[in-house]
Automatic annotation (TrEMBL):
GO biological process, one term: DNA integration
Protein name (record): Integrase catalytic domain-containing protein
CDD domains recorded: CD_CSD
Molecular function per GO: nucleic acid binding
GO cellular component, one term: chromosome
Source organism, top-level taxon: Eukaryota
Species in which this protein is naturally found: Rhamnusium bicolor
Record-annotated Integrase catalytic domain positions: 1-89
Length: 211
């Protein structure tokens, strides 16, 4: 789900706990196509109502539209949504997603050091780096389909949300860091700002460690 406050509040979190729902966000560019299609259908029916009645008051009609939607035969599931029960939901799920391949063997493991994909905006230059300079550590592998990963930065601070495999890149040189700027010098020590890290990570290092 997205990061809206309607999903991240005490009441909703308690509801998720009550029904044992795994509640998390991926912070990904991937979208929930099925949910968005349902929303689009509801919007289309609402706007038909608005046009016919010359009013944008939706609260009086929304529940009726949802009820009508749930009582109509759906091509994808080959039945009415209101007829889905605990006893047949697994059969329907398998039927709808029978063409979907199960997740392939996981590419990364806990402890791997990775970079995160920079979600490329359509106007960003193609020759700019596509991966973060900052490094992160995988702390948990979620058994989802597809697999998602939880990360923390190199100071041990958890990173919000989960990430898909294609949004991560394992680094070959986890112990190599780039210096953005030398801020101060003191004998054989230099105080540096690291590329891709904020100023809280500035530190003194031996000048001999800079290549």
């Amino acid at each position: 789900m997205d990061q809206g406050t309607e999903f991240y509040n005490v009441h909703f979190k308690n509801l998720m706990k009550k029904y044992k729902v795994n509640h998390y966000s991926t912070y990904s560019t991937k979208k929930a196509a099925i949910v968005e299609r349902v929303i689009r259908t509801l919007k289309e029916r609402l706007y038909k109502y608005f046009s016919l009645n010359g009013s944008y008051r939706w609260i009086d009609i929304l529940s009726d539209i949802v009820k009508d939607y749930n009582n109509r035969w759906h091509r994808t599931i080959r039945m009415k949504p209101c007829d889905i029960t605990k006893s047949n939901e697994k059969k329907i799920l398998n039927s709808v997603y029978k063409h979907i391949k199960l997740a392939t063997p996981r590419r990364y493991k806990v402890g791997d050091i990775v970079r995160i994909s920079k979600n490329k905006h359509v106007f960003k230059k193609g020759y700019t780096p596509n991966w973060t300079t900052e490094l992160f550590k995988i702390v948990k592998v979620r058994i989802t389909n597809p697999t998602t990963y939880l990360l923390e930065d190199m100071q041990g601070t958890p990173i919000s949300g989960g990430f898909y495999e294609e949004e991560l890149q394992k680094t070959k040189n986890a112990d190599v860091y780039l210096v953005e700027k030398v801020l101060r010098r003191r004998g054989k020590k230099v105080y540096v700002k690291w590329l891709g890290l904020d100023s809280s990570n500035n530190s003194w290092i031996d000048s001999d460690n800079i290549l």
